[in-house]
Design goal:
It is a single chain. With 383 residues, this protein is mainly β. Helix content is 10%, strand content 55%. The strands form 2 sheets. Strands 1, 2, 3, 4, 5, 6, 7, 8, 9, 10, 11, 12 and 13 form a 13-stranded antiparallel beta sheet that branches. 33% of the residues are buried.
Length: 383
């Protein structure tokens, strides 16, 4: 009897400890890798970027996840997003299961969404450089020049992307989680800004378009839902400037620590990237009816350094893509998601963006244009 009581006591105590830890009472460590040991451990360098950094960085096995992303703004007003994945978003614990997706938003407001899945035998992932093949689709490049191809029964798209702004990453581009820093999330913007040529063949018609584009590469070895509560991510092209901005918020387990990201380039040269000098103000926050997530209609990023200040303001005009993550799950995972109240979602926006540049508090530049940005919201609402 005493043995049973001791067992029950230990069980209850264990459950309570897990509950307390999961509620963030003892927040664990989360950092962006900036130290010499981080570079050495990854075999990468502070002042140079290697071609292999855009090659496959994981094994593709259970517990790893990776994708290569591309988006473009075309001269007729169309927008394209293409992503090649090692596996579906909700299957990090699954085996290699390659797929790619494409979204095209036409100027008239209509859109196309396609997904293509291929077997492992029909796919390949190079570790030497970006060379991803999924069935008849491919994403290939060497940091300077890329070719992307997507096709299905009614759609065929060929993209050429030529880099204009140098490849860049925030320090190592690796965010580490936990006391031992074994779990990580990695992000590498291989092409912060490039020139795009696009051939689009759809339902018997062909369009040849020009524009500007962006490519990045992401990978991680821990369920991203356990690392981040949410993030805003945006990029913009304004006159001679190209800009990448983000703020990622960790889960409660990691004390909701916020990681800002900033890259500002002018005439293809990076002129600002000190993440500690970036601030974000969100205004006119409302709950999105479809997802129940708080969405800011206005984002104001401010970066100030050496008597120079950059203010970048995004004004949401339209949601162009909404996905409730539970809709991608089936069977037991979906049942568990419902029981636990999981309501993760992804929203992609378009709208106006403006840049104000101040020198010694005097306005020296003011540019306005259009942009695409996103809100990835995995966890419970914080606003």
């Amino acid at each position: 009897m005493q043995t049973a009581i001791k067992y029950m006591y230990r069980l209850v105590l264990s459950v309570l400890i897990i509950a307390v830890l999961s509620n963030g009472a003892f927040a664990q460590k989360a950092i962006l890798g900036k130290e010499k040991k981080h570079y050495e451990g990854l075999n990468i360098f502070l002042d140079s970027i290697q071609n292999r950094e855009d090659g496959m960085r994981t094994t593709g096995r259970r517990g790893t996840y990776e994708w290569w992303y591309f988006d473009a703004h075309l001269d007729d007003g169309s927008k394209i997003v293409i992503v090649f994945f090692t596996k579906p978003t909700h299957k990090i614990k699954g085996r290699l299961n390659p797929l790619c997706t494409i979204d095209i938003d036409w100027p008239d407001g209509s859109n196309i969404h396609r997904e293509y899945t291929a077997s492992v035998k029909e796919s390949q992932f190079s570790k030497e450089q970006c060379d991803v093949v999924i069935g008849n689709n491919f994403f290939r490049g060497n940091l300077k020049y890329y070719e992307i191809h997507f096709e299905d029964d009614s759609l065929s798209v060929d993209i050429i992307l030529e880099r204009k702004t140098e490849s860049w990453r925030p320090h190592t581009g690796h965010w580490y989680f936990g006391k031992r820093q074994k779990k990580y999330f990695a992000w590498f913007p291989s092409v912060p800004l490039g020139e795009v040529s696009a051939d689009i063949r759809y339902q018997g018609s062909t369009k040849k378009l020009q524009g500007s584009g962006y490519h990045d590469h992401n990978w991680y070895n821990k369920n991203i839902l356990a690392m981040f509560n949410h993030w805003y991510w945006a990029r913009a092209e304004l006159g001679d400037y190209s800009i990448i901005l983000s703020r990622m918020t960790a889960t409660k387990k990691y004390d909701h620590i916020e990681f800002p990201i900033v890259m500002i380039a002018k005439n293809r040269e990076i002129i600002a990237d000190d993440d500690e000098k970036l601030e974000l103000v969100k205004k006119e926050i409302k709950l999105n009816e479809e997802t129940g997530k708080p969405v800011a209609d206005i984002l104001i990023f401010t970066y100030e350094e050496n008597n120079r200040k950059y203010i970048v303001t995004f004004n949401r005009e339209q949601n162009i893509f909404i996905k409730k993550m539970i809709e991608s799950t089936r069977g037991i995972p979906k049942l568990i998601a419902k029981i636990t109240g999981f309501d993760g979602s992804y929203i992609r926006f378009t709208g106006g963006v403006s840049l104000e540049v101040y020198e010694n508090n005097i306005l020296t530049d003011h540019i306005e244009d259009n942009a695409i940005w996103e809100l990835m919201y995995f966890g419970k609402n914080l606003e």
